[in-house]
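Lab meeting, item 3. Inverse folding demo.
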C-alpha cells in the first residue's frame, strides 16, 4: 500500500450522517449499512480494490465504542482488519487500519536503497514475489541481500498498519 494513502486512512476517515440508514434502533447500528458506508470510505484507498466489507452483526451504539470490520480484497488477495470507532453517539465513525497491505517488491526496493546509502556499494535484493500481501504489524518475511562478496539473509518486519518496514540483517 502506498504509505501516503495508508497514512491518510490511518489518521482516520470520518463518516458523517451515518444515523440516516444505519440505525436499526436507538441502541444499535445497522451492520449492513455500516459496512456499506465503511466500504465507500476505504474503497480506492486500499490497493488492490476492496470487494466488500463485513462488520459484526450486532453493533452497540455509543460514542467511543469500537468494533472491527473486515475489508475483503478483490481477486481473493486477502482480508484487511479495520478498527471502527464511533463518535457523536454513532453518527460518525473513525476508521483505522489494523493490517498493512504491502508489496514485497516495494520492501526489496526500500531495503536496497537503505543498504546502498549505508554501505555505498551495489546490492541485489529479493524479498519474494511482487504483488499485494496482507500482513499484521509484527509479521515477518525473509529477504536476501547480495553484494559482490557475500550474501546475507535479512528479516523484514512489518512495523505498523501503514506498511513501515524494519530490516534485521543476519
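The presenter then showed the designed sequence:
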Amino acid at each position: 500500500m502506498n504509505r501516503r494513502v495508508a497514512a491518510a486512512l490511518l489518521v482516520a476517515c470520518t463518516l458523517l450522517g451515518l444515523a440516516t440508514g444505519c440505525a436499526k434502533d436507538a441502541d444499535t447500528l445497522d451492520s449492513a449499512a455500516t459496512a456499506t458506508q465503511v466500504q465507500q470510505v476505504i474503497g480506492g484507498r486500499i490497493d488492490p480494490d476492496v470487494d466488500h466489507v463485513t462488520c459484526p452483526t450486532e453493533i452497540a451504539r455509543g460514542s467511543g465504542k469500537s468494533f472491527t470490520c473486515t475489508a475483503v480484497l478483490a481477486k481473493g488477495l486477502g482480508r484487511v482488519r479495520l478498527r471502527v470507532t464511533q463518535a457523536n453517539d454513532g453518527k460518525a465513525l473513525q476508521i483505522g487500519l489494523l493490517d498493512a497491505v504491502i508489496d514485497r517488491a516495494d520492501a526489496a526496493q526500500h531495503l536496497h536503497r537503505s543498504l546502498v546509502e549505508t554501505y555505498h556499494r551495489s546490492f541485489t535484493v529479493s524479498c519474494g514475489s511482487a504483488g499485494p500481501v496482507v500482513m499484521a504489524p509484527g509479521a515477518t518475511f525473509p529477504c536476501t541481500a547480495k553484494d559482490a562478496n557475500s550474501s546475507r539473509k535479512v528479516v523484514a518486519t512489518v512495523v505498523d498498519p501503514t506498511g513501515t518496514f524494519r530490516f534485521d540483517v543476519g
